[in-house]
Specification:
Elements lengths: L1 H34 L3 H14 L4 H13 L3 H14 L4 H14 L2 H14 L4 H13 L3 H14 L4 H13 L3 H14 L4 H13 L3 H13 L5 H13 L3 H13 L6 H13 L3 H14 L4 H13 L3 H14 L4 H13 L3 H14 L3 H13 L3 H13 L3 H6 L9 H6 L10
Length: 425
């Protein structure tokens, strides 16, 4: 009788071993298929495993990963939840489920799962990283910094952790710390194009323009070829008066990206003006005025282009249009005054200089207004303007001041009145 029980027990052990081995074999087969990207076939194997062995929690986990990769997010959550039911401290299942919840936009559930992972495995650095990303998304920048700092403490060789922490520092206006993190991210991952791009933006903001241009160029070299990077680099070139380079980037925006931004045409037009390509500048400003007829700068700049090509009347029309749009821009008045002077319309010129100087005191405009006053016979007014110009650092005005007669010497002034018109000569 005892012998029969022993045989029976042996048969049970043998059957269980065979059963268990079969489940393990199917699980291994599923893993191989999963690695090869045969996800549906892998799911079939993992399903067979859990059918035979309902407590095989790793099979639920791996099937959940396959389902998520196939876009079956609800099925994935169900699998990860089942794995947790089978093993309550299964941190990998909490982590994977948190990833799916985050992908679905259920940040509250995702945060809870990542917190559980950290509770179970305090050194699981990926959980800090994932939670940090959610905190960053929610503008909880201090919490994001704390999470990424912990992730870095546990794994200092992951460039993305520094890159993401930089965004939190940037949001808190701690730009030097953000740049420092981007430096580290680039050191770890020299091909991290976005790190160069983000560092360029910060350097640009800090007016470190040459360094910003280098980073914009590196980002472009690493295949960040969107409109924004070319636009930013173009403006950086413009700020450093590298107008030929600015024109190339602005032309790319116009010709390849088909931009309809009036501002792009404005900047290229100004760049053409500064490289003496006035016909091209006029064309760009004309396009800009069509796209944005309410920006007086385009009329002012086109007026300058007309001035340079001796199209005086067209320039006056443009400066007048700019004044109608914005009567508080001093450049419109001073440019039109210069043209009125050229036409010998000195009263109109003086009137425009008055308006320009009221808006913005300027040494050159005081000097030029004084010249008009002298021609009109107002030598005292001319001397007053020379003095104002000289006080603002105008070198030629300083050199002419000795020709002015003392304002208190009335007799001398009357005696020498015939010579008063030689002040500017």
């Amino acid at each position: 009788m005892i012998r029969k029980y022993i045989v029976f027990a042996f048969l049970l052990i043998f059957q269980f071993a065979s059963y268990s081995q079969t489940a393990n074999d199917m699980f291994d087969a599923g893993m191989e298929k999963s690695k090869k990207g045969l996800l549906n076939e892998a799911i079939v194997d993992f399903t067979k495993v859990v059918d035979k062995s309902p407590y095989f929690y790793d099979a639920y986990l791996e099937r959940g990963k396959c389902n998520f990769a196939l876009g079956k997010k609800d099925a994935a959550i169900a699998d990860f939840t089942k794995a947790i039911e089978k093993k309550a401290d299964y941190h990998h299942a909490f982590f994977q489920r948190g990833i799916v919840y985050a992908d679905l936009g259920n940040d509250k559930a995702a945060l809870a799962d990542f917190a559980k992972v950290i509770e179970l495995k305090p050194k699981f650095f990926e959980a800090y990283s994932k939670r940090g990303l959610l905190n960053l998304k929610a503008n909880k920048n201090d919490l994001a910094i704390a999470d990424y700092s912990k992730a870095i403490e546990l794994n200092a060789k992951e460039g993305d952790y520094y890159y993401n922490r930089a965004f939190a520092y940037k949001a808190l206006l701690k730009e030097d710390l953000a740049i420092s993190d981007l430096n580290k991210a680039i050191e770890i991952k020299p091909g991290l194009a976005n790190a160069f791009y983000e560092r360029a933006i910060l350097l640009d903001k800090k007016n470190q323009i040459p360094a910003a241009i280098i980073d914009y160029s590196k980002a472009i070299e690493l295949k960040i070829a969107n409109q924004d990077v070319f636009k930013r680099r173009a403006y950086a070139y413009f700020k450093t008066q590298k107008y030929a380079e600015a024109i190339k980037d602005l032309s790319k925006l116009i010709d390849e990206f088909k931009t309809k931004e009036a501002e792009i045409y404005t900047y290229r037009g100004i760049s053409y003006n500064n490289t003496a390509n006035y016909p091209a500048a006029i064309k760009d400003f004309s396009k800009a005025t069509t796209l944005n007829p309410k920006n007086e700068v385009n009329f002012i700049q086109r007026g300058v282009s007309y001035m340079k090509t001796n199209k005086t009347q067209q320039a006056i029309v443009d400066f007048s249009k700019s004044i109608n749009i914005n009567p508080d821009n001093p450049d419109s008045y001073s440019n039109r005054a210069e043209l009125y002077t050229k036409q010998k319309k000195y009263e109109l010129a003086i009137e425009d200089y008055n308006k320009s100087l009221k808006l913005k005191p300027d040494a050159e405009n005081y000097f030029l207004r004084g010249g008009c006053k002298e021609i009109m016979g107002n030598s005292d007014g001319a001397c007053e303007d020379l003095n104002l110009a000289a006080n603002l650092g105008h070198k030629k005005a300083k050199s002419l001041l000795d020709k002015c007669i003392s304002a208190g010497d009335k007799k001398s002034r009357e005696k020498n009145n015939n010579n008063s018109k030689n002040i500017y000569k």
